[in-house]
Amino acid sequence: MIVIGADHGGYKLKEKIKKYLDEKEIKYEDKGTFSEESVDYPLIAKEVAKAVSTKKADTGILVCRSGIGMSMVANKFKGVRCAPCYQEQTAKFARMHNNANILALGADYITENEAICILRQFLATQFEGGRHEARVNLISEIENENMK
Fold first, then answer.
1. Which of 18, 97, 120, 132 does the annotation list as catalytic?
2. Quick one: 2-146 is in which CATH superfamily?
3. N or C: which end of the chain has fewer CB within 10 A?
4. Is 97 a known active-site residue?
5. Domain boundaries in the chain?
């Protein structure tokens, strides 16, 4: 299950992504926003990150103008590893090496086609484990030390 959310700056791209997910029959839950009216992006990112953090969703997608603000919010949640990605390669390595579970996209910096390619790569890539497992475990240890 995927959970998706966007602010007003990412709304149009989120709708295009939902169309792609529908075409591929990939289940998702939309946490908003539902128009181009101005909203506070932290509230949307919070809902998506909470769903991933509590394991109600396996993966999340966040869309705003840059992908940066939403990723900052998402990474405040235990167990969330959100990566802003602007190309397929970064999405691949975010999953393969860092076991990222939320993808953040910047609607002002990528086209619709690029977004779909990035998303496709993110969803298709599995965590490699091995030497990366210890590093992801260190991330979790640091998280547990600092998020009480």
1. 97
2. Sugar-phosphate isomerase, RpiB/LacA/LacB (3.40.1400.10)
3. C
4. yes
5. 2-146
